[in-house]
Structures are given as C-alpha cells and as structure tokens.
Amino acid sequence: MKRKPILKTVLTFAGVMPLILASVACSNGSLQMSIISTAEFSQTKNVEVTPSPSAISIETPTIEPVVTATMQNAPTEVDVRQLPLAAPLDSTKMEFSGMAWYGDKLVLLPQYPARFKVDGNPAIYAIEKQDILLAIEQKGGQPLTGKPVPFEDGGLSNSLKGFEGFESLFFDGNSVYLTIETHSGSPMMGYFVRGQVVGDLKKIVLEPETLIELPPQTSFENASNEAIAIFQGKVYTLFEDNGASVNPEPYASVINMADLSQTRLPFPSINYRITDATMVASDGTFWVMNYFYPGDTHLAVNSDPIALEFGLGPTHIESAVVERILELHITDSGIKLEQIPPIQLRLLDTETARNWEGIEYLDGYGFLLVTDSFPDTILGFVPYP
After folding, report:
1. Judging by beta carbons within 10 Å of its beta carbon (0-12, 13-18, 19+), is residue 198 exposed, middle or buried?
2. What is the rounded distance in angstroms from the CA atom of residue 340 to the CA atom of residue 338?
3. CA separation for the pair 60, 31 (Å, rounded)
4. Could you tell me which residues are beta bridge partners of residue 106?
5. What is the mean pLDDT of residues 230-255?
6. For 195, which of 27, 65, 176, 228 could close a Cys bridge (C-beta 3.0–4.6 Å)?
7. Cβ proximity of 377 and 90 under 8 Å
8. Could you read off the pLDDT of 291-336 as tens digits, one per residue?
9. Residue 325 falls within a domain, yes or no?
10. Number of domains in the chain
11. What's the start-to-end Cα distance of the chain, in Å?
C-alpha cells in the first residue's frame, strides 16, 4: 500500500501529543541496551540463528550506531545509514513493498514486477549479502547492484480483479510465499500464494492453484496483509492496521502449508501500520516495522501505549511521524508484543516520513530497511542501539 508521506499541514495531533508524551519521557528511567553478537543473542534468548548456507570471507565491520538524545533520560534514537543503490534499484518506480533472505541473497520485491522487464520477463531483484556487508564497512563506496530474477506470476496480476500489487514475500527452502493486495472486496481483498524457486534463484514461478483469500480486518481502502513470517511449518500473514481504535480484535492469518488450511491467532493491538516482518528465530522471536504517516488521519490516536510506557526520542517528540522497530513473539495462545523499548529511528525532519515497506534481520549486526518511493527509494541499515 502506498500513501504519499510528506506532511503538508500541521495536525492537531502533531502539536498536542509530543507535549503530553515529552513529560513521560522525562520521567522514565534510562533505557540500557548493548550490542550483542549472534552467538550472545542465541545464549541470551535461547534461540538458534540459522547461518547462511554460503560462508562469506569478509572482515567483520566495526559498527558504531549513531544515537541522539536531548535529555538524560530520553530514549535514544538510531540513525538509518543509507546504502547507495545502482540503477535500476534506485528508481522510485520500483516501489519496493518487501524483502527477504534467500540464502545469502537479499531479495527485494517491487510492488509491480512487470514494470521492469528483463528479456521480456517481469523481474524482482537480489543483492549479495557480501556486497551489503562491504557497503556497511566502507560507509559508501560503489552503489549496490541487483541481479534481476525472472518472476512468473501465473497470470495473477491480470486475472485478479482490482490487482494492486505484491505486498510481501518470504522464502522457506525453495518455496516462496507472497501476499497480494486488491480492491476487489468491500473495499479490499488480500490473497496469499505459494511459488517455487527454480535453480539457484534462476527464476521464481508462482502457483495460482494455491491462492487463498485473506479478508481485510477493517473497512479502510489500501489496507491488507502486508507482512509474512514463517515458524514451525506455518505461515503467518499480518494485517497492517491493528490499533484498538480501528481493529478491536486483530489477528494473524495462519496457513498450514501441509493442506493450505487457514486459522487465526490473536495479534497485539499496535497503533499505526505494520508494514513488514523479519525472519523468525527458533524461539518464535521476530521484529516488525511500525510506521505512521500523519496524513493517515484514520490511524491517528490521542495516546499510544508504547510511547506512554517507553517515552519518545528527541525527533519523535517534535513530530507526529512514527518510525520504529518492535519485537514480537509467537506463542500457542497468540503473538505477543515484547515489553522492551522499541528501536526508534531518528527522523529526517519534523515533516518528512519515510515509508518503510520492508525490514529484514542482518544477523549479528542489526536490520536492513527499504522504502517504497517516498520520499525516495532508500535501502537503509540500522545497527542495534
């Protein structure tokens, strides 16, 4: 879903909420976090992080997160380090809507793969993990190039009424899972579909016979299932609007890949939008991107429980924009929001919102993020604060 996130008016919410929440941030105790390695993370969380299938010979970069705070007890914010992209990846026409790891390749999903054809075929793009790590270490250097991957959608982009693009993807071995957004319902309808990876990412072929409806949980336009997570043989698709004021009973749609049956699992009430999810650790822990563009007035709230509990960083105090990463946990009884401070991203300014549509875990380092097209096409790196 694409919404132009550049503020043109000063909303009442933007003027009131920062003043209310600033006092809460001042009264909170200091938030302490530290950088941990993948091994230390596994010991701390009792999880196993699956290594990439291909070993990478590269010197581990020293990553110093840039954090800011205007008062001693205010939550810190982390700068997003922009990684340069070569053409055509840097084009705003890409409108990236998700990304996921396939082995040691980061696969970026354009919302409309048919916009950039290679040898007459729609394509998505893959970037080598080694190149990403080098770009982080060099803090600039040559723009990252992407390998086009032919993408055969089985005619779904033409046959689905009101097709509005592909919204998320995730790989499990040589299987790939995607969500699709359409305006064929009242007013929306989402879909889940499975596909197969041919060769070593030589092409992706979707299987239209696996198509499953994902009914919207609200009556808003441009709202559908925008994120996918995989855990213990089940696929979890996440709806984007889950705040209590708009969605009183949010849930994740759980798809059993053995028989394509679908069940529901309670999802936490989280304000604003959930736009993408990372891979899931062996204990069920994963992270989501939580974003708010104040032009989405139907998602505005008078108070936000996460901000009230943990406070706002210095740029969030001055703006109604929200850009933060939240940690979640899959349990048998539901998906839970971890009671730890969110990772707040340092905003560009008080008016510009970066429409982060993709997030993925970069093991041992932090997170990779990608925007759709607003305010530009940005591939960003966020180290652990």
Report:
1. middle
2. 6
3. 27
4. 101, 127
5. 97
6. 176
7. yes
8. 999 999 999 999 999 999 999 999 999 999 999 999 999 999 999 9
9. yes
10. 1
11. 29
